[in-house]
Amino acid sequence: MRSSDYRKLKVWLKAMDLTVEIYKLVRLLPKEETYALSDQMRRAVVSIPSNIAEGQGRNSDKEFVNFLSIARGSLWELETQIEICERLGYIDNVTKSNTFLLTAEVSKMLNALSNSLMSKV
Question: Among 73, 95, 90, 92, which Cα is nearest to 37's?
Fold first, then answer.
């Protein structure tokens, strides 16, 4: 039986770090993006640790894997939005690259956990 405390999952902790970084990043965006790109980025990034936590609370590893897949989709959505920010000149390439290092780490951790759970199913 797996632990029910999602707060101990390294991937959840790393996703929380990513959430904080994105909240800092969206403060750099112009005011006209407050209810557009900024809002979308915040929703996408919050979805990542939220789905990890919700999946951990489900009854089966199969359900957990499904929520990890949703988290991964939100992560890729976020990466697309970061790319848009850079293309629009809201952030520089260094900021994008540094943020992508963190998203890549979360992605690897999501994949590893998902693969581990799938091997049990």
Answer: 90
Reported as half-sphere exposure (CB side, CA atoms, 13 A), residue 111 has a value of 8
**How many CB atoms lie under 10 A from the CB of residue 29?**
17
Q: Do 100 and 82 form a contact (C-beta atoms < 8 A)?
A: yes
In this structure, whether the domain defined by 6-120 belongs to CATH 3.30.310.50 is answered with: no
Tokens of 107: 């992605």
Name all contacts of 23-30 with Cβ < 8 Å and 24+ positions apart.
25/82, 25/85, 25/91, 25/95, 25/99, 28/90, 28/91, 28/95, 29/85, 29/90, 30/90
Average pLDDT over residues 12-29: 97
Domain ranges of the chain: 6-120
Is the pLDDT at 112 greater than 90, yes or no?
yes
How confident is the model over 85-106, as a mean pLDDT?
97
pLDDT tens column, 33-73: 989 999 999 999 999 999 999 999 999 999 999 999 999 99
